[in-house]
Amino acid sequence: MKRPGTYSGILSGGISGRTGPHLLPLARIKKIMKKSSDDVKMITGEAPIVFSKACELFIEEITKRAWNITLQGKRRTLCKEDVASAVITTDIFDFLVNLVSDSAKSEES
Amino acid sequence: MEFGGNGGFHGYRRVLPQNSSAGTKAPEMPPQMNHNANTIDDIECTVREQDRFMPIANVIRIMRKILPTHAKIADDAKETIQECVSEFIGFITSEANDRCQREQRKTITAEDVLWAMSKLGFDDYIEPLTLYLHRYREYDGGERGSLTGEPLVKRAAADPGAYGYMTFPPVPFPMAPHHGFFGAPPMNGFLKDPSNAGPSQAAVAGIDPSPQCKEQV
């Protein structure tokens, strides 16, 4: 049985890959934040925590939308094209349009 | 193990030990450019790719919460969503960072992140996130105050709809069944909610709505 460690474990990103009570590793989130642009310097400890929950909500939303498309096609396997369709049909996912269409292109090559 | 661009968009090949700290080079090039890399570049790209994405197991776990049991997920779908998450983080962070720079601040705060999400159209997330952050701050403040969790107990007793998963000293309060609020079933002794009770945790926690419950651990 996993016994939760000290609270500081959360802030430092979890224990050896485990995320403590968060679903997503905080250290990884912080790394991705820092790589988003060169001039991201400092981040409060709370920001990755907000992202941890936000990414969960994001994954849930995109999964729901993609699954609806899967169901429309009377299939039971959620595939990449369903994700791409969900992105294209959702305004707030516009920033992902290039990502999903580039994925499609790389598969063809 | 084979390297080389054999069509895998990600490098899950564990070339180096999980030594993410070694990946100190800032990857200037976008992921698409890694496909035809030679061996050495590919090794470096593999390490950086692992750093660039959320662990796929975590992503899948969250997806499975939404999907019916019989649903299957194609591997490429999992990877695509993994990439989308990283893109989402970068997108929001850039906007938050721009705001910090305009206001001549050096540190991105949780409020900046929330503001950026609202600005970029993710209004629906703001309320659950604000609540999440609020709960985190409550219990974080209590935790830092005492290892025995004494302030937490007092606070939790007054707060019925509490967000208990963040606290380590087991505290007797019911867990609000908010959708997707926590990914995994709580491990701590939330005995007031019988569906979540674990007998072993109960023994450890000794949960009891009486003053002695503050002496756990």
Automatic annotation (TrEMBL), chain A:
Residues 24-87 form the Transcription factor CBF/NF-Y/archaeal histone domain. GO terms for cellular component: nucleus. It comes from the Eukaryota. InterPro entries: CBFA_NFYB_domain, Histone-fold, Transcr_DNA_Rep_Reg. GO terms for molecular function: DNA-binding transcription factor activity, RNA polymerase II-specific; protein heterodimerization activity; RNA polymerase II cis-regulatory region sequence-specific DNA binding. The keyword Repeat does not apply. It is found in: Nucleus. Keywords: DNA-binding, Nucleus, Transcription, Transcription regulation. Stimulates the transcription of various genes by recognizing and binding to a CCAAT motif in promoters. Belongs to the NFYC/HAP5 subunit family. Heterotrimeric transcription factor composed of three components, NF-YA, NF-YB and NF-YC. NF-YB and NF-YC must interact and dimerize for NF-YA association and DNA binding. This is Nuclear transcription factor Y subunit C-2-like.
Automatic annotation (TrEMBL), chain B:
InterPro entries: CBFA_NFYB_domain, Histone-fold, Transc_fact_NFYB/HAP3. Residues 53-117 form the Transcription factor CBF/NF-Y/archaeal histone domain. Residues 1-37, 193-217 are annotated as: Disordered. GO terms for cellular component: CCAAT-binding factor complex. Signal peptide: none annotated. Keywords: Abscisic acid signaling pathway, Activator, DNA-binding, Nucleus, Transcription, Transcription regulation. It comes from the Eukaryota. One of its GO terms (biological process) is abscisic acid-activated signaling pathway. Pfam families: CBFD_NFYB_HMF (PF00808). Belongs to the NFYB/HAP3 subunit family. This is Nuclear transcription factor Y subunit B-6-like. It comes from Olea europaea subsp. europaea.
